[in-house]
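Exam revision sheet. Question 4 asks you to relate a sequence to its structure. Input first:
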Amino acid sequence: MVEIESLLVDWARQGLLPHARAALQDPRVQVHVADIRTYVESLSPGSVDLILMDVDNGPDFIVHQSNASLYLSQFLETSLSKLRAGGLLGFWSSSRSTRLQDALTEVFGQCDEVAFDVMRAGRQFEYFLYFASPVATSR
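Answer key, C-alpha cells:
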C-alpha cells in the first residue's frame, strides 16, 4: 500500500479507520508513505502483480491537479513496465470515464470497465473500476 499522507497511515494503525488496522497487521501488506508516481517509478521492471489506484475521484473530477498525470499515457506505460506477465492495473473512479478507458486500451491493448452501486447515507452512488492487463503482443 502506498499512501501520500502519513497521518492516514497513523490513523489506520490506531484503529480509527474501519477494517484498516487488521489489513495493516497482515504480514503480506507493506505500507509505504510516498507519492505513488515516485513509488511506481522506483519499482523494478516486471516486479509486481497488481497496481490498484484509488487516487482523487478519477480523471474526470480531479480535486488535486497534480494527480492528472496519473491518468496519462506516460504513467500508464511506466505502470505497464512494472507489471509481471498476467499482472493488472486498476483504477477506481467516481464517474464513468471513457477517456481513461481509451487511454488504458491504447497502452495495454484492452481495458475492462466494471460499474457498481454503493449505498452511502441513504443515497445510491454508481462507481467504476477500470482494469487493464498486458496483452502478450503489446510488450
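Marking note for examiners. The longest strand covers residues 83-93.
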